[in-house]
Amino acid sequence: MNEENNKSFPFQENVTNLIVEKYFGHNPETKMKVIDILCILFDFSLPSIIQDTYLKKFLAEFYKSKFGKSSNNENENQSIFIDTIYKDFKSHDYEEYEVHFLNLIHSK
Predict the structure, then answer these.
(1) What is the Cα–Cα distance from 5 to 68, expressed in whole angstroms?
(2) Is residue 38 a contact partner of residue 51, using CB atoms and an 8 Å limit?
(3) Is residue 6 part of a domain?
(4) 13 or 107: which carries more pLDDT confidence?
(5) Is the residue at 2 inside a domain?
(6) Residue 4 lies in a domain
């Protein structure tokens, strides 16, 4: 999470881009795996400022990937993310996907 370490190789940015890219793929199995990763990343049972900062970066990248432009509006970024995963939930209405989706919205 140290910005100095990310200057030579933007590891955090590359991982974030990969997660977002895989989520926007069309394979529901891959989406479920990404949702599982998000459950871990968004687990705020022990909140931290670094985790909160990463979440904001993730949501901004998600918005950028969906619309092809950046947004600095944190509420809009969050709203788009929630709307997108909910739309996917309704589209992939089968039991396995529902469990992963519910785990994500239940994560602290």
Answers:
(1) 27
(2) no
(3) no
(4) 13
(5) no
(6) no
Question: Residue 93 in 3-state DSSP?
Answer: coil
Question: Is 25 in contact with 10 (CB distance < 8 Å)?
Answer: no
- 99, 93, 100, 89: which is closest to 39 by C-alpha? 100
What total of structural domains would you count in the chain?
A: 1
Domain housing 22: 11-106
pLDDT in tens, 55-100: 899 999 999 999 999 998 999 999 999 899 888 888 876 677 788 8
Mention every residue, 6+ apart, whose C-beta is less than 8 A from residue 19.
Answer: 34, 37, 38, 58
On whether the CB atoms of residues 76 and 12 are closer than 8 A, the answer is: no
Residue 90 lies in a domain: yes
Backbone angles phi, psi at 30, to 5 degrees: -65, -40
Amino acid letter for position 15:
V
**b/e for 84-94, b at 16 or more Cβ within 10 A?**
ebeebbeebee
